[in-house]
Design brief:
Blueprint (H helix, E strand, L loop, with lengths): L7 H9 L2 H7 L1 E4 L1 H7 L3 E3 L5 E4 L8 E8 L4 E10 L5 E6 L4 E5 L5 H8 L4 H51 L12 H10 L1
């Protein structure tokens, strides 16, 4: 069975396209703000770009491009997901013509060169700086959330241990030691044993 599920004529036509031609066909329109900023209508979609779906059942959904498939000439967006029968979620395939680029990942040098053809370097440099600061903030936020999660887990673990210790004390298996030392009851028992 063939990997792609496209009609035979279309597969043949796609097979004749070279890699750089496929890459260009995978372009999506830019949002109005980005059009004014970069002085162009569209750019090829890349992993890491933020996009908005313009047609279909996911119309209006914004997400990040997770994967670009050059064989099928399609893109995968992280929030465009369908459920299988067994309950697992799978990324849906979307044609790039049905996407609008909202935020472009400009950290790539090749993409910077493409944009420099129509826009000055200063505009691109400011965009790169904004992107880097946004990524730093996102990384700090992720680290903060991880630290909070670890603190909550440690707190839950301590509470669980405390509950287990209290249960053991109630059953009489373990003697509870007060801040001053041994309980009076256990002290009397030890004295009587001697």
């Amino acid at each position: 069975m063939n990997k792609t599920k496209q009609p035979r004529k279309q597969r043949k036509r796609l097979a004749t396209l070279k890699l750089h031609q496929r890459r260009k066909k995978l372009s999506a329109a830019l949002s109005t703000e980005l059009r004014a900023k970069f002085k162009r209508r569209s750019l090829p979609v890349r992993r890491g770009d933020k996009v908005m779906v313009t047609t279909g059942s996911f119309k209006g959904t914004e997400g990040e491009v997770m994967k670009v498939d050059l064989d099928r000439m399609k893109a995968y967006v992280d929030k465009v997901v369908s459920k299988k029968r067994d309950g697992t979620e799978v990324l849906r395939v979307i044609d790039p013509s049905n996407l609008i680029l909202i935020d472009v990942d400009i950290r790539d040098k090749a993409r910077q060169k493409v944009l420099e053809r129509k826009v000055s370097k200063t505009v691109i440099e400011t965009e790169v700086k904004k992107e880097e600061t946004r990524l730093k903030k996102a990384e700090e936020e992720r680290k903060r959330k991880e630290a909070e999660k670890k603190a909550k887990e440690a707190e839950k673990k301590a509470e669980k241990e405390q509950k287990e210790e209290d249960k053991a004390v109630k059953k009489g298996k373990k003697t509870k030691v007060s801040e001053k030392g041994i309980d009076k009851k256990t002290k009397k028992e030890w004295i009587s044993e001697k």
